Amino acid sequence: MIKELMIERLRKIEDLEQRQLLKDIVSGVFVNLIDYQEEMNNKLEERVFNEMEDVENRFDIFVTLSHQEDIDPIHQCLFPMRPADLESKTIQLNKLLQSLERNEQAVLFSLFLTCDSVQIQQLLAEERLFNGTIVTTAGPISIQVSLTRNTDYLQEINKLYPIFQINGLPWKTINHPFAYKFFNVKLVKCSPLNEDAEITQIIVDLEEYEVNKRLNVVPLWNIERHEVKNIGFPVPAIDKVNYEHVLSFRKMGNEHGYLVEADGENVRYIKRTDNELTVVSPQDKSGIWKLLKVVKMEEEKLGKLNYELVSNRRIEHFTTKFASKHSSNVKTKGEIIRMVNTFDAANKFELVDIEIVNSFLEASFTYCANPFITEMLGERSHKKIMLLKFKAKEEKDFLANDILSFLVSEVQRHFFEYKCVGVWL
User: Mind listing the pLDDT tens digit for each residue in 360-379?
Assistant: First the structure.
């Protein structure tokens, strides 16, 4: 800016000899001085920014979906939430007979529906039965099935919360819109079965939801499971009661985040350095420790994705780092808007208005994405409602309500004195 101003002033000097003389002086002294000053300013800005260490960004969770046949078993960034999803599954007719004899509804398979959260809730509330066919070597068998929510992936998310607590790390709501759209297909009624036959195919007609049905899709995230042995022998901790177990992740890369997956009773606290974790535990013998590696996402390593990649990542700004380090809440509309806009997930939405009301009887488009945080739950009937009014910047897809629920749940986590509800304008 200063350089351009000086050049502009030089151009206005009519005497060419004086202009050349002044240009030589400016180029020889002042330009170098300006460059040096700008370089020092940039270094100072970078130093201040880096001093606000943001440990949180090493534990950003990215999720997507993939067709089972497209999953890369040696992918560097994305891994199945449940390794069992990659195993081939077969259903035995004799097991189905046993379930029917016990009046139990056997799970035939699971599926994914590309429906928004309102349609999902409506489908669950209706408790509908759908017709289908089990194709066997002895012929087709007519069946009726029901759909119930598959909570396997929600349970995987729930398991992360106590792990973050044990590791002494702040919790951030997981943005996983896909996890809420999986269903178990359960057998309710069927024609007589031939116990000696084998199942070759199961066909289910979901009627108007048939266009939304997706089979053999698997949720992926950037969490990889590892088992690590102690470095050396445990040494007594400073309290002379517990022992320090040193776990090295140098070979796995120190740019990633690492979580010790252990029982809370077996871990007192965890210390972190650039290349090691020190687990303080009452356990006095060396052993194998389970680690969750939260892989740093690199776009060039992603490859082709079948579905959108979403995350709970915050945009890196100085104000974001400063606010996370100094956790006192500023109870203003501007602070809530800033909080929402720090997330990558908010780039398609705009928080237009916030209103505090005594009651809200209309249908909400959002749900709680942190039901396991028990200290924030409890009786809410006496709480006022914080109505968060959003506007979509582009046409909403089937994930929009779920991502909105993630953003509202993050606000709820900071403003637990209200019941937060999200609506579209």
Answer: 888 788 999 998 875 555 55
